[in-house]
């Protein structure tokens, strides 16, 4: 008999009422369950089986698994039947509309698209947790009930569909439009295929059109495999750039760059929805009351010998640190303000670029133990001085002068300081002016971030501690230097982090209210795989000083290592808002995007950093890594060589990336020659075993690759923080040895 039912027909204990839907591979009828007195949907599939073939077995296995799902966003399967050789499924009847119809008839708001997507991701999370892949996420399989509840249909049917001979071309084409590249190529799939389809559905909800199109199936498949969709901004200029990033990552053709699990996409969608929900409240609040804002420029050195630059910067930095602790005052962070040192821009232009209402500028003139400090607080809109003062004193009174400047600023800006300028926040870390000067010199060279400058910084911090061994800030500064040494030199991470940890603990022991010390300790704990401890210290640092941009910056990298990209982007956005011209923050925005698989966004962020400073450390190296991942080998080598060209100290990791690039270019002899040179250098200098593992994996020698990874683990190589998200390991992620290593360092 032909497939299909007619009204009044009896199918087991179901009485058919009417046809309610028809598609390329099934028809759906409204029916009455005469046993339980309820309406159900009966779906009959357009494929008859005369025997116990493989297709029939697969269908029953999948459908039975799907029937075990119990989730408010999944249509419930009640029963699996067979009628005249045709598979029949009895399922929950949902009164509502198909998402296909809604997209056709309405222009959906961002919030509504996010609400629907969150419901879909919740459902997929339930299914994926039970090992079930949908395989056919598309608007035709999504119902929106009359009370706006999202319902996914057809769990368990897609694998069966793949086994069927479908003769309706339009059905094939429609399904193809939502397929992942691996599906379109006929390859094996996993849960990430559903995530790609989710990206297609979300794109279609926002724009009203499909991201991959074609007149025939082959054209659609080609587009899915080879082409990028038109950017959302071209079609919906009102949508958030964050939504574009989420869709880009879901639609990544490279499996390792795509979301790795549905929960990650769900977290990003919820984060964006929360941000959009707060927009109206935040905008209203800002409209009614604009926070006072200020930028403190580095004080100009007017000393005869022109040798007090560090001192002028140090005074300004201390004032910034004091002001950031005050609620109700927005203070631009050090690196952004200091980027205008020696600038030819006038004060009004500087204020406009930094987005502040007032600017504090000043000068210092130091001769022996005498110092003159001149300051002016300027209103950007009018250009008038709100306040100015000149101080002539001896060095030992400098701390009192800094406090007076901070209090005068809050008074002139009419900021109610309350208890913010408490004794704990205004007390001085040292009362010795000589120790203070040595500390300022240490921070001056620390901020340069080169191998040579870091070594100079160590000397000055150590001199400060020789003068005052209770100087907590100097211990924190010295900790920061040792922590950074492996990033900029060939210094052993194991030795560096041990020393840095001891120094950070010492700083906290002296002063537990020091935000810098808690942030420094957090990074050490982070790099030694104490994730719980690191999170606690980052939160403590931010609690003490919510205006400390560096704490947010480093906390963002913590989230990156754990593949928590939505949290990482949120923290990095906060760091950027506090310090928009910071070179390390701008660079590491590119780092976050790189590890999130958002390569074009990473390139854009890194190029922006190079516009700020074309020679800033590690930017060219990171840009080379992005190009390498995109298969742009010549460009990658150019960037690696550019980084090497202006470095003043040898960095072995850079050599490792060059070797990997030659390997991927097929120049194996060249790569092996450079590897021999690198191993010879390792006899005299420390070389990260983690970076050597990259090379062997690239060369196809997995055994030696894992040997070097094991050595990296034993040596507490800090690069292992990146192992979960580093694309260099994509080919071995399923290896039991790799999985065990992730577990050992707490990143499973």
Offer a concise description of the structure:
By secondary structure, the chain is of the alpha+beta class.
Chart the SSEs and their pairings.
Elements: E1 10-11, E2 14-22, E3 26-33, E4 38-45, H1 54-67, E5 77-83, E6 86-92, E7 96-98, H2 99-105, H3 110-129, E8 142-145, E9 150-152, H4 158-163, H5 169-176, H6 181-184, H7 192-207, H8 217-226, H9 232-235, H10 241-250, H11 262-288, E10 293-296, E11 300-301, H12 309-323, E12 330-331, H13 334-338, H14 347-354, E13 358-367, E14 370-379, E15 385-394, H15 398-412, H16 423-426, H17 433-446, H18 451-467, H19 472-488, H20 493-510, H21 515-527, H22 531-544, H23 549-561, H24 565-578, H25 583-595, H26 599-612, H27 619-629, H28 633-646, H29 652-664, H30 668-681, H31 689-698, H32 702-714, H33 736-744
Parallel strand pairs: 10-12, 10-13, 11-13
Antiparallel strand pairs: 1-2, 2-3, 3-4, 4-6, 5-6, 7-8, 8-9, 13-14, 14-15
């Amino acid at each position: 008999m032909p497939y299909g039912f007619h009204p009044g027909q009896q199918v087991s204990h179901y009485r058919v009422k009417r046809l309610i839907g028809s598609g390329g591979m099934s028809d759906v009828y409204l029916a009455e369950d005469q046993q339980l007195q309820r309406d159900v949907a009966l779906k009959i599939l357009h494929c008859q089986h005369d025997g116990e073939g493989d297709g029939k077995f697969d269908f029953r296995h999948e459908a039975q698994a799907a029937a075990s799902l119990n989730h408010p966003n999944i249509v419930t399967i009640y029963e699996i039947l067979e009628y005249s050789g045709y598979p029949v499924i009895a399922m929950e009847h949902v009164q509502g509309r198909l998402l296909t119809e809604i997209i056709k008839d309405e222009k959906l708001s961002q919030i509504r698209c996010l609400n629907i997507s969150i419901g879909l991701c919740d459902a997929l999370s339930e299914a994926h947790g039970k090992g079930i892949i949908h395989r056919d996420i598309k608007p035709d399989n999504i119902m929106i009930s009359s009370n706006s509840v999202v319902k996914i249909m057809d769990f368990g049917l897609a694998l069966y569909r793949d086994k069927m001979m479908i003769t309706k071309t339009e059905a094939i084409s429609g399904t193809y439009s939502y397929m992942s590249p691996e599906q379109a190529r006929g390859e094996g799939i996993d849960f990430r295929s559903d995530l790609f389809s989710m990206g297609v559905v979300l794109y279609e909800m926002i724009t009203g059109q499909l991201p991959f199109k074609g007149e025939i199936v082959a054209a659609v498949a080609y587009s899915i495999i080879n082409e990028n969709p038109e950017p959302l901004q071209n079609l919906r200029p009102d949508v958030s750039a964050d939504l574009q990033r989420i869709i880009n990552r879901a639609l990544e053709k490279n499996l390792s760059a795509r979301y790795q699990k549905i929960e990650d996409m769900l977290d990003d969608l919820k984060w964006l929805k929360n941000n959009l929900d707060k927009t109206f409240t935040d905008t209203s609040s800002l409209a009614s009351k604009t926070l006072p804002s200020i930028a403190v420029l580095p004080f100009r050195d007017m000393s005869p010998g022109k040798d007090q630059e560090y001192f002028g910067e140090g005074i300004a930095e201390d004032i910034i640190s004091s002001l950031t602790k005050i609620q109700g005052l927005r203070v631009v962070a050090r690196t952004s303000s200091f980027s205008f040192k020696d600038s030819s821009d006038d004060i009004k232009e500087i204020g406009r670029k930094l987005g502040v209402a007032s600017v504090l500028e000043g000068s210092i003139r130091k001769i022996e133990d005498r110092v003159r400090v001149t300051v002016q607080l300027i209103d950007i809109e009018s250009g008038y001085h709100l306040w100015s003062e000149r101080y002539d004193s001896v060095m030992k009174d400098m701390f009192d002068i800094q406090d007076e400047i901070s209090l005068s600023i809050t008074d002139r800006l009419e900021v109610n300081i309350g208890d913010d300028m408490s004794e704990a926040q205004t007390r001085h870390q040292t009362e010795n002016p000589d120790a203070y000067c040595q500390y300022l010199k240490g921070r001056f060279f620390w901020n340069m971030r080169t191998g040579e400058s870091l070594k100079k910084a160590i000397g000055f911090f150590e001199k400060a501690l020789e003068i005052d061994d209770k100087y907590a800030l100097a211990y924190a500064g010295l900790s920061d230097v040792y922590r950074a040494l492996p990033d900029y030199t060939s210094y052993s991470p194991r030795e560096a982090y041990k020393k840095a940890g001891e120094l950070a603990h010492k700083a906290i022991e002296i002063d537990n209210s020091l935000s810098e010390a808690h942030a420094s300790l957090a990074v050490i704990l982070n790099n030694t795989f104490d994730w719980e401890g690191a999170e606690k210290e980052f939160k403590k640092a931010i609690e003490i000083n919510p205006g400390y941009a560096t704490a947010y910056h480093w906390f963002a990298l913590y989230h990156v290592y754990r593949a928590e990209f939505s949290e990482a982007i949120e923290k990095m956005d906060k760091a950027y808002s506090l310090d928009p011209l910071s070179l390390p923050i701008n660079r590491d925005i590119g780092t976050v995007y790189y590890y999130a698989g958002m390569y074009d966004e990473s390139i854009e962020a890194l190029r922006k950093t190079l516009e700020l400073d074309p020679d800033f450390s590690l930017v060219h190296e990171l840009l080379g890594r992005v190009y390498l991942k995109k298969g742009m080998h010549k460009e990658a080598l150019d960037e690696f060589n550019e980084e090497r060209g202006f470095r003043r100290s040898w960095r072995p990791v850079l050599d490792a990336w060059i070797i990997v690039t030659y390997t991927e270019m097929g120049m194996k002899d060249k790569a092996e020659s450079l590897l021999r040179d690198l191993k010879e250098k390792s006899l005299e200098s420390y070389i990260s075993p983690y970076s050597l593992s990259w090379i062997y994996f690239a060369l196809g020698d997995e055994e030696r690759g894992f040997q070097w990874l094991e050595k990296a683990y034993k040596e507490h190589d800090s690069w292992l923080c990146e192992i979960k998200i580093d694309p260099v390991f994509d080919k071995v992620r399923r290896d039991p040895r790799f999985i065990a290593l992730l577990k050992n360092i707490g990143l499973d």
